[in-house]
Queue: 4 jobs
Job 1
Amino acid sequence: MKYLESIRAGIDHLLESDDRTIVLGEDIVDPYGGAFKVTKGLSTKYPDRVLSMPISESAIVGASIGLAMEGFKPICEIMFGDFITLATDQIVNSGSKFNWMYNDKVMIPLVIRTAVGGYRGYGPTHSQSLESMFLNVPGLDVISPTIFGDPGRLLAIAHESTKPALFIEHKVSYPKKLASGRSKSAGILSVTQTLDNFPEYRVLPTTDQKIDLVVIAYGEVASMVGEIAEELFLDEEICVMLIVPTLLNQSPSESTVNLVRSCGKALIVEEGHEQFGWASHMSRMVTDQAFESLTKPISVLGAKQVPIGNASSLEEQILPSRALIKKQIATLIGY
């Protein structure tokens, strides 16, 4: 199954199994089925509960919050993650706070889906990864599905919650096949799941040799690191352990910290801007717990602090590229 198909199947299952589920968004009804075709076919199957909305992100999220307050379980779609800024007031000052303001008499079980990320040449206002803007908002989960797990199941976990979630889907991941158990390409990467609620994945070459480096990443850059890990193992017999979290606004797991302690070196990668971003904060939290075991300072990679260009040559310079990640891994390992 592909990443996109898993999300569509997840929404389909939630609509079928719970008549409180309702889906709202721009251009999500057939025949268009959404900008990335995630909802294609669903409005035909559930015409009263998959509804097209006006071009107003604030209205989409605001209406969804109102529906949640009335007992529905909305899933709303913001076409591009860049446009989430237009709904920030509804998310930050309403949806994430109402249960606190009204002493848990009001719950907001809401999933806000949106497509994020670059590497497609969509330019500065359609290529951003703005999730770090929301990581310090109390009462809001920020969730990143990955090809190493089941995005549809992760959507169901978010849907079961009594608080709102920002569900960020990378547009480059949509057509990719899910990696179940082992990768399909070289067949050397083993994928295991830790944590039950919001899963964390360990991706490692099937070998008993010592881990040379721990890399922590999410979303599409995690897919990129997985491909690099295959190449390094096949070409250089270098063993890279990739850790892929799905709930971004939580502290690193104890198992992650223990792996960094054991290895002594770590690289943390995100596609969002490196300055004041998720990777920098994750580095600080891991360092606090593993400092005495580190043989080198934890390294961080993210986008440069400039708007994202349209041309692929500009994206290559601004976003974390395969070449840059591979170079940083080589520097840390010393080969």
Job 2
Amino acid sequence: MNYSILMAVYEKEKPEFFEKSILSMLNQTVPSDDFVIVCDGPLNRCLDGVINKYKGKLNVIRNDKKIGLSKSLNIGLAACKNEFVARMDSDDISVSTRCEQELKLMEADSSIKIVSGTIQEFIGEPKGDGLLKKRVLPECHEDLVKFSRKRNPFNHPAVMFRKSAVLAAGGYNDDYHRFEDYDLWIRMLRQGAIGYNIQDTIVYMRVSEDFYLRRGGRKFARDTLRFHKNMIKTGWSKGINYLTYAVPHAAVCIMPNSMRKLVYKCLRKD
């Protein structure tokens, strides 16, 4: 069956990373017939050059001004012509069999609405010393539901979902900055969507030297607490989840960057 690819890009992305990301999806063992890229505001000449290089293979949508990731993804999702949609970030690299693996799972079981998998972080190139830790998540639905009450149950850069299920849940919501995808998964799970996580690495996620710095600060801590309070309000989680995960997470956000980096590494696997 055919599937769409959904990507968003903005002016600060590096063109060489952007091109590698595009190529990793164009070179899938099961190719897509619908590659949607939303340009969130005007791009620079180099990024436009990458798009022009592959424009015959891309469905490009341009926002007049920058409106943010959530709104851009909703615009792109509306343009996707297939039921199955693979999310892709503009600087990550998918393994060549990623979409084939995800499609097989979703085609085999119509109740599965979200499939993701393990991501492995890297700096520079996804090989040798450039490879860092992995984020491995619970495999089966019952386990990932329990996990979702304290942490994000899917790796967003590796997700494939059913468009109809995402739309039924209301799409991406930018009310919760930095937690837009987590919020969507919770709403989908509450509606009965079944999820699954492939345990093998299916996406290499690029990280920069300031990766952990950008996951800190008082505003990030406030956003974390606010989001988890909403999960309690909706009945998805309980106070114990808030105390044992949200509060410690907020504390990590305001730690010095070097300490926060150590904590994140402890949560990853080799």
Job 3
Amino acid sequence: MKLSVCERLIIVAMVMLLVLPIAGCAKKAPPPPPPPPAGTITVEPAKIDVEMLKKYFPPIAKALGLPEAMSATVPHLAMLALPVTFKGAGWRPNEIITVELVVPPGLEIKGLDRARGEDAVGLAFATSDANGNFEAKMERTATIGFVLRGGFLPTLAPDPKTLIPGNPLPNGTYTLKAVGEDTRSVATTTWRLELVAPPAPPAPAAPPAAPPAPGKLSFEAAEYTNDQVGFSVKYPKEWKQSTAIKGPTIVFVAQAAAQVPLVIVDVVAGANFTEALNTAVKGAGSSDIKIKSQSETALADGTKASQAVYSFSNPIAPMPVDALSIGAQKGDKWVIVTVATVELLAPFDAAKFSEIAKTLQFQK
């Protein structure tokens, strides 16, 4: 039987009248329960600044083989020794709590995926006691990866090359949050970090120093004499003889109080200056030698010599070393005088370093 359009509309209307009351009687989903109340969070120290960090620098310097004088230039390294504690109260008994650092917009931290909506990184984990209190220490991996923004070696030890000079969190006030098992339960506090020393005000320009008289050095000198090969070298009197650098061709080392600058004297065989220099530098355990310039020169007494300015890596110095070497031949040996520094600790002074190296003098 074929229904007319009018009859079909009547049937649809009757069905709707039957279904709507049933749908209206269906039970609605209950609203979600309110989040459990959040407790509190505090951090100790609530403020970390450069002066505080300097007090914790000595053990780090000893562990990394760095001079303590570096505390003025890389104080953030002391975070590796500074204990940071998070505490809280008023949480549910036996609740797992995550302590997170809220990362401000525009600040990049490895491991934070902003594309997935992440805005914080974990610093510590704790479980509250029967009274709802908790205490947790900041994880060492969080200190290195998130606060110092460094990296790790394959052995999971901190990678010195990512920490020195480093890229720690910029100075500022950060938000910390404690998050309960129900992620809607959140407590916050602030944390002031000043891990980077403020730039020193520019020193007033000093009047140009008068050039030393001919034959006179610009520094008060001590002298090293090698009677076996027959030569002598002068160096700043306040530098002290040292055994910090060792190598099969090294005969003398003296260094400043901050360990750099330092002067190294090698006696080494070689067909030419380049070969002798490479033998000397690699013999001390150094690598990644990058020559910046090389030229012929003369010692202070007019003896012909060769000079090179270069950088290299050394296992006892986690930062690149900049050096100037001058070598002159005596018989079948090269005597090479090297003056080196780490720019972060003491600037590379080409004029003074050359002046020291050119004091090399052969006995008649």
Job 4
Amino acid sequence: MTRILLCLSHSIEESQQLQLLHELGYQVASIGGYIDPAHPHDPKRPPLPQVPMVPAVKDAVDALGTDDNLGAAQAHIPDAILDWLDDDGIIIYHHYLDRLYGQWDRIRAWRDASSGRRIIWRSVGQSVTNNEQQAAPFRRQGLERVAYSPKEANIPGYSGHDALIRFWVDPAEYTGWTGDTQIVINITQHLAQRHPYTNYEFWRDATKGLSAMALGPGSEAVGGSGELSYDDMHTALRMARAYLYTGTQPASYTLGLIEAMMTGIPIVSIGPSHHNVFPYGPSLFEGHELASSFSDDPAVAALHLRQLLAEPAVDVSIAIRQRAIDIFGKAAVAAAWKAYLR
């Protein structure tokens, strides 16, 4: 059985990757927040008791005795973990690539000692030109790259990819939209505090005078709910009449957008012209292409929202959910990973 080590910096995708790769038949371990899948460090997503903890991996990390054992383990994968990976092991890193590059010669030597070993960079919307330029020499030395959006190719100096595989959401888990609550929502971590990277002013202007609430950590600062439990987040997505997506930069789109789409809540997106804090402009943004509708003008977005608030837009809900299933559905993404890793 092929063994996979996840060195991921995004707890939600870490949870997804553990679950998916386990279901695909791999023996998978993480040196991130899900090092013990049944007891994750981050409450944003549920525990994964169905994914076995790998004692050899956890013991090697615990033995480091540093202030941050997980960070230390990602920056210098313990020999015992490399031994556990065996002759066909796969290592997957996220965007804190200095942790990989700082040990590259060692890890490349490990990879080159067996034809079955692989090292993969899984980009998740955090890359910019500096990252691409830094990655280029390692890409030439066989660092694989799985992109998450076709828009990443528009980053100046793009170092290329070996596969394009989207994030995934389970249609059986995110479903049941009713739109019973006549309100516009948005779920973003620190929507106001991270402006302009979250385009908070667009949210403020487009929802002025409407029944609206920002949800998620930090939202209480602007009259929102604050952080929600996983179940409460599901309930909010099912009940709210509409969703206003403002994006985050430099990401082409976020998991929050996908989860809203899969639930079936009608979505109005900010237009691409607002994706300009980074110098790449609208060429990197994909969220408006995925949503139900979009506008560069908050006043026009407000009109779209008023129409959606008037009554549950069932046809719009059906269409946006089907789009999510086609692009981000678990079955499609699982098939893509299976084909790439075989």
